[in-house]
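seq:
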Amino acid sequence: MKHLVIVGGGFAGLNCARKLASRPDIQITLVDKNNFQQFQPLLYQVATAVLAPSNAALFLAQCPAAALEPGCKTGRSRLG
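struct:
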């Protein structure tokens, strides 16, 4: 089994993890300095109470491989 380390939990990192999560021959580790991914263009709408904060940010610990790719059975997250 190959072990792939993806550095960065932004759009490219999450998309890469999502695309590769269904492959049984690859173990994926996603590394990011933050435990969340935020979409900065929506922050002004959060500040003006048009959107809830959960609509502009995604906690990486809440999206293991099973959430990234339906049918994927394994996923792990570790903070710290």
